[in-house]
Prior knowledge:
The complex is a heterotrimer of chains A (162), B (799) and C (264).
Chain A: E1 3-8, E2 11-16, H1 23-30, E3 49-52, E4 55-58, E5 71-73, H2 87-94, H3 104-117, H4 123-129, H5 141-154
Parallel strand pairs in A: 1-5
Antiparallel strand pairs in A: 1-2, 3-4, 3-5
Chain B: H1 3-10, H2 21-25, E1 41-47, E2 53-59, H3 61-64, E3 69-74, H4 75-80, E4 112-113, E5 119-125, H5 128-137, E6 139-144, H6 151-154, E7 170-177, H7 179-187, E8 191-199, E9 211-217, E10 222-227, H8 232-244, E11 251-254, H9 270-282, E12 286-289, H10 292-298, E13 305-313, E14 319-331, E15 358-367, H11 381-399, H12 403-410, E16 419-420, E17 426-427, H13 432-443, H14 448-457, E18 461-470, H15 478-483, E19 492-498, E20 504-508, H16 517-529, E21 536-539, H17 557-583, E22 591-594, E23 597-600, E24 606-608, H18 609-617, E25 632-637, E26 646-656, E27 661-672, H19 679-698, E28 730-733, H20 751-767, H21 782-798
Chain C: E1 5-7, H1 12-18, E2 24-27, H2 33-38, E3 46-49, E4 59-62, E5 65-69, H3 74-79, H4 81-86, H5 88-95, H6 100-103, H7 108-114, H8 121-127, E6 131-134, E7 138-140, H9 141-144, E8 159-165, E9 169-176, E10 183-192, E11 195-201, E12 209-210, H10 212-220, H11 224-229, H12 245-263
Parallel strand pairs in C: 1-3, 2-3
Antiparallel strand pairs in C: 4-5, 5-8, 6-7, 6-8, 9-10, 10-11, 11-12
The complex binds FE2/S2 (inorganic) cluster (2 copies).
Amino acid sequence: MPTVSMTVNGKAVASDVEGRTLLVDFLRENLRLTGTHVGCDTLQCGACVVHVNGDSVKACSMLALSAEGAEITTIEGIANPDGSLSVLQRAFQDHHGLQCGFCTPGMVMSAADLLKRNANPSEREVREWLEGNLCRCTGYHNIVKAILAAAAEMRGEKIAAE
Amino acid sequence: MPRDEAVASGGIGKAVKRREDVRFLTGKGTYTDDMNRPDQTYCVFLRSNVAHGQITRVDTAAASAMPGVVRIFTGEDIAAAGLGGVPCGWEITSSNGEKMKEPAHPILAQGKVRHVGDPIAAVVAESREAAKDAAEAIGLEIEEMGAVVNMTTAIQGHGAPVHDEAEDNLCYDWDLGDKDATDAAFANATHVTTLEFVNNRMIPNAMEPRAAIGEYDAARDQHTLYTTSQNPHVIRLLMGAFVLNIPEHKLRVMAPDVGGGFGSKIFHYAEEAFVTWASKEIGRPIKWTAERSESFVTDAHGRDHVTKAELAMDSEGKFLALRADTLANMGAYLSTFAPCVPTWLHGTLLAGQYAHPAVHCRVRAVFTNTVPVDAYRGAGRPEATYLLERLINKAAQEIGLDQVEIRRRNFIRPDQFPYDTPVALQYDTGNYLATLARALEMADYAGFNARKAESAARGKLRGIGLSCYIEACGIAPSSLVGALGARAGLYEAASVRVNPTGSVSVFTGSHSHGQGHETTFAQVVADRLGIPYESIEIVHGDTDRVPFGMGTYGSRSLAVGGTAIVNAVDKVIAKGKKIAAHLMEASEADVVFEDGQYKVAGTDKAKAFGEVSLAAYVPHQYPIEDIEPGLEETAFYDPKNFTFPAGSYLCEVEVDPDTGKIEVLGFWAADDFGNVVNPMIVEGQVHGGLVQGLGQAFIENCVYDENGQLPSGSYMDYAMPRAGDFPSFEVDTCVTACTHNPLGVKGCGEAGAIGAPPALVNAVVDALSAYGVDHIDMPLSPQKVWATIQAAKPAMAAE
Amino acid sequence: MYNFDYVKPASVADAVAALQGEDAQAIAGGQTLIATMKQRLAQPRTLVDLTGITEMQGISVDGGVVSVGAGARHAEVAGSAEVRGAIPALADLAGKIGDPQVRNRGTIGGSIANNDPSACYPAAVLGLGATVVTNAREIAAADFFQGLYTTSLNEGEVVTAVKFPVAAAASWQKFEQPASRFSLVGVFVAKVEGEVRVAVTGASEEGVFRAAALEQALASDFSAAAVEGASVSSAGMIADLHGTPDYRANLVKVMTKRAVEAMS
Ligand code: FES
Ligand code: FES
């Protein structure tokens, strides 16, 4: 079996994998980082979104071996260094942007990528960015609100959580 | 802490942030598939790819010899072990007194397959991929039989029936209401409006696919099942007693974090019974996780009614009677609650918010070679609301009344409560004019015509649609549902354990899979006990820890489960009073409990809640002759009636006549859920429900072809609503408190899914009314809307 | 998924060599192929990952030609200032493929080599009259697409770049299939090299095609009215859950009209 090595949440990791091992299975099974979820088999739900070299990608549609040498960040790796919730994570809590929590890691990782590219997105831009993330619980309303609030806070503005 | 502060930190009415969020936001949730048990194996089911057929060969020899395969089970193994089939929890009696047809539902197919996805064999292997490889290598031959798909032809009994015991594929033929009175009212009507429609089949699509791990501890003769369930005790009861013959004390069922349910995780499924049983057979834990494409053909679907409805009116537009005739799809087997959905959860809601003198409803349930159909968010009530609210708009269109005015003329007025409907319910309270007024105000209904003109100037068709729903929640008084065919009680249980230093652990039979019970139930207890919210823990989802439970569905958790908690808390308070009276040397009758303190009325003597609980566990100075030490109470609460949330929804759309594409421009929801414990969570429930309802109305469509294949069997063809499909919503609540539970709550989880579909369809029909369109079946896909406009255009030109 | 051997060559030459192996298959971003393999509908013995090849990367504009490396991800094309400056419609098209995560992985080379009848890129390649560059030759767009999932690529031949002539004006109009969000119908209209081209994806059972009737009508009168007057036949158009042939034919006209309006 070939070996793959990469950096996951700042830690160097290496493991034997099959050619067909998906990045998401490598994270969940080999590293037991189960925050990255699998919600579909057609690349559409986004429950599996992680960052590969800073870009959000669907870990269910990438081979672990393709990530050789990459820097991977998962939901387990985005809290503040002291372990407290990041601005974006906290905005999801403050604005009730999650219910069952299953889509949440993918939503957060996807939104983090958006805010890196666009510090001041409009509501339309947020909604369109989330095209690849399905949520069955929230109706998206509060997810969008949370992302807009996090963007505002990161720009130094403050939006009341009602 | 004084009560005010306790409430400030998390009492009733506060938008307390959810405590469950931290684990989900950091990737530390524990969903079933996140768990691996030591020495675990993996299971993959070989499923039928034909809808209806006789299995002529299942050859597992080669597959069994493949690397990594532990064992392959077929229907023969299940039969040899004498396992029961998947049971049905509700029996409907037909109008002629006959019991419904209840064919067997085997764990693995016995000779025949009856829908695409029906399990035939189960491969247990060292890895998922090894199991899949082997499943593919099983020699399988099925002699295809014609598939029964269309309900209308199915009941005519052409071709081979789905089940031999139901030759005409009819499960039952049921009715409700006074047929003679209804017929008489129709005979005297000035105007009759008729609507024939399809309530489209839905695939639930909780984002977490179902999963189950079975484990057997031979040393203790103990079974454990981890499963994605909304009601672990119900699974323990059904699976233990009816399928596997395992007594409750030898079977533990745990539903850890569950990624959404919407009904689909209420039911007992074959896969969880299989892994539980087979883990003992092979002596190792077995894990099964559905792939999404598997979820499409195994999770119970929702809705799927074909209905003819008629409304009789007088010259003023007053309703005289309503008549409905429905074919309800049961799919290939009866899922857990399937028979009650189109009957007692549908027929009984047909009065809506209106004072109908007479209603009659007939429902025929039909077997087809499709996935079983059961409760899906709203369950029966969305179908009833859609029937009524579409019919009323069509009636308004026909007699030239505004959609608001026709409803106002027919509403049950606030002074008519409690109100007995002609379809067996008693509404305890409500104020339909208030929710309607609030919705009209939020939506600026009065300004609609100006907005429509603005759209028209851009070549777009604008429409606004109203829907006024009612639902029956808080299911349900056990004696009542027992009389209606339920094979279980529908109470709820809770234990409140006060720990020696005054912190509280609450064990609830309700199950949270997104609803936020860990937060809201703690708010309720904090409020009742006047102690800090932070010192209360909510435990759920484990049959070994929670005394009993009927689970979470039908928007029942707060109304029924919450009341059980309140009752257990009240028992704690009552016992505490005895202890406090002893400690303060006062008479029990003089002790009052206020703000987290036991006080002797009229004195400044007081004992804090924590002091009394400590005394209960360190009973040095204690009324030991009268009461036991300890402070822990259990309550079972059986509701006195259903609760009746109701509301008014308005939806505004713009239709692009060139493409048929609908844009939802605004949605306004005014709901009456009774008292609200956590407004933030209630709003979130409404938002989610709305998108499921809107999804059904304009985008989601489960399609079977004539061979019983499912072309919409993946997200490539089954359209899921996404963030970009909607604007933000405006939601608000108006309160009439429920009169028969101590919290005055009604339930909020399903409202959106119930009220939204007719609002959207009414809006689109309104937008197209210039073309003479008076109905379009859901979902209002662009091509359907476009084709409707195309068909209407020549008709318009000819006029 | 069936198992396979995985290789990740660093040069086009090594990739071509690796693809000589029995049942070897190239994979780029994998945004289609991995889903196909999960369904066990493809069974390569060796998977040759093209994403490590630097000579297939990069975007440049030179002498009226936009050259896009086959390994360019959709997000790169969408975000490229050069592309946006030269052919904004091409950047638009890339920015509307799939979703942000798919755009972060999927590549132009992978998309056109797969030639899905509903994919977006083929419309731009055909609509602009681009040239497909491979390890062996240059292929005109008109010769490259050969119907459903079929191209003129030989066994083991690898697309290395696509060269787009800069258009005087162009517009991409996509009507999404509600579930997959692929093109139910997508129309790429370009005024390029002295002619009007209308390339359509998502509509035909034969895959991407040029709508001759619309091109003729627009050649003499580049206006929405001209589109209105032209007739688009529904013969040979896809019929599925989401659209009848008639509906697709209508969308071809509506989307073309919108493109013309956007360009006027
Ligand atoms: S698991 Fe659904 S997109 Fe990756
Ligand atoms: S919170 Fe449940 S799927 Fe999004």
